[in-house]
Each structure stands twice: as C-alpha cells, then as structure tokens.
C-alpha cells in the first residue's frame, strides 16, 4: 500500500509542512525511520530523533516548534499520538482484511447442535461444544476451546489456545489473546474441623460485554453463583487474575500481574497499575487510579482519586512518606548520635547532682 503525505494529512484533518507528494509505504518508530516510512513525535523526550530520522513523514503537534534543521515532511495535528493510533488501526484492519479467512478447518470439531454465523473462521484443533452460539465474523484460532452453552457476539477474535468454559456470555468485538482462560472455577473451599478443605461448587458463569480486550495468560474465574462481569470497553493486560464474582466497570484498564480477589467491584473508568493487589468484597469508586504494586484492602468511596503504596494511601500522602522513607538511614544515624549525647549529658547531670549533694 502506498499513500502520499497529502492523503494522510487530509484523512487526519491536519496540515503539511514540506512535500505533500512524498510517498509513504510503511509505519515506523521515529528512531527507526527510513525513507518511505511515517512516524510520529508526541513525547518531548524523543524530539532529538526528529533531527536524525530518515522517516519521510513525521506527525507532530500543531504547536510544535523545531529548534534544529530536519529533512522530514511534517503533518501537524491536534494530538500526534491519537492520530498515529488511528493510522495503526487502519493499517491493522487492512492487514486483517487481506488475511481474512472463513470456514471450518477439517481438523476442527464443531458439535452438531452449535449455531455458527456467517463468515466465521474456526481453525484446526479448535473445539466447539454443544449448544454454542457464535456470531457473524468471529475468528477462533487453533486450539481454541468453547464450552457448552456459551454465546459469542459478532466479530470477536480468540487467539490460539484460548479456553472458554461452559455457559459464558461474550459480547461483540471482544478480543482474547493466547492461552487465556475464561470461566475456570473460582477459588472456593470450606475449612473443616479436621483441617481439610471441602470444595464449594462454582455454578455461576462469566459475562464479558462488548469491546473488551483481554491479554495473554490471564484468568477470569466463574462466579460461585451469579456472574463474574467484565463490562463494556474494559482493557485487561496479560497475566492478570480476576476472581469469582468480581465486577470490572466500563472502560477500566488493568495492567499486568494485578490480582483482584472475589466479589470486589471496580468502578468504571478506573486505572489499575501493574502488580496491584486488591482484596475481596470491596468497592472502588468511579475513576479510581491505583499506582503499580499498590495494595488495596479498603473501600474507596471518593471518585477520581489516585492511590499509591502498600497499604495504599492518597497520592500526596504517599509522596511525602516516600521522601521521609528515603532519608530514614540518615535519620537513624542522627538518632544514634543524639542517644549517645543524651547518655553523656545524663551521666554528667547525675555526677553534678551527687557532687552538689555532698
């Protein structure tokens, strides 16, 4: 595919500085740019690459002012990062369209009672169980398992090795990456008098609403009763544990290696950093932002507030505490010196007191 800077500028509703007819055949990072490629500059830390890149076109902010000579044609837009993301999305759509397949591979198994929509692709060694419903345009890659009575909306994509247990309800335009497991048993065990544990049957299901994306090697447990729910537009990273009866709000983002314990509700538009641990049976308000490696063991009732640390505390408090923590070794030295001086003064005072009494 080949486009000119002018065509791209018109598509992004931007303006051009330089040659409008320069041809673009690929996208690249600005530091790896070469002739015929298009890149973007959003973060000021990367500005120096603009003056050395060989990229033919670079997308920049409307108010960007260069301070050195450069050779690239510039496309000026309101938000370079968002504009480049739009181009990546269109490029990805074009690539997928070229590689689009439909039909059921002869090495796949589809139960006779399953209902398969139009333009569905089911790859080799995929397994579709009884009474499954798969909407139009879905793609089940190799070794995908879809359990009985599961319903899947339109244009959803499951990458190799995805396992979806029975009775799951999955919306449209859902993307689930390799080896993620949806609907495995929640961690429910009842302690007995003799020290053993009896398993509590997990008879609920998982509901994943429209436009959700889930990364690789993530687990979403089925509910004990009722449903574990991932609401519309949520984005979930790789290597995340979501326990039984958890509810993830709309457009919430979870970064890798985080874990959410059972029955906790995370409000809409929240952001959870990497390696965050959230205890069970909690409610987190809308717009909650949690920094990496934080620990949450209490309800958060105030909306749009930032939390850091373990146990977590408001961002401002955490920053002040961090400053103090860094100086603790020096504080310890000062305390030790003061203790020695205090002992010396105390001994001298006692000596003087005894002398005066005599």
Task: Characterise the protein shown here.
This protein is α/β, with parallel strands linked by helices. 20% of the residues lie in helices and 28% in strands. The protein has three domains: 3-98, MurE/MurF, N-terminal domain (Udp-n-acetylmuramoylalanyl-d-glutamate--2,6- Diaminopimelate Ligase, Chain: A, domain 1, 3-Layer(aba) Sandwich); 103-317, Hexapeptide repeat proteins (UDP N-Acetylglucosamine Acyltransferase, domain 1, 3 Solenoid); 328-358. Helix 2 (47-50) links the parallel strand 5 (37-40) and strand 6 (57-61). The protein is flat and about 105 Å long.
Which secondary-structure class do the elements indicate? alpha/beta
Query: CA-to-CA gap between the ends?
Result: 104 Å
- Tell me the count of domains: 3
Spatially, the strands of the biggest sheet line up as: 8-11-14-17-20-25-28-31-34-37-39-40
Low-confidence stretches: none
CATH domain class name of the largest domain: Mainly Beta
Assess the beta-strand content as a share of residues.
25-35%
Largest sheet: 12 strands, mixed
CATH-assigned homologous superfamily of the largest domain: Hexapeptide repeat proteins
Gyration radius over CA? 29 Å
What is the averaged pLDDT score? 93
What's the number of extended β-strand segments? 40
Give the quaternary arrangement of the chains. single chain
* Gross geometry: flat
Q: Count every helix, treating DSSP H or I runs of 4 or more residues as helices.
A: 5
Under CATH, the topology of the largest domain is which? UDP N-Acetylglucosamine Acyltransferase, domain 1
CATH architect. name of the largest domain:
3 Solenoid
Determine the fraction of residues in helical runs and give it as a percent range: 10-25%
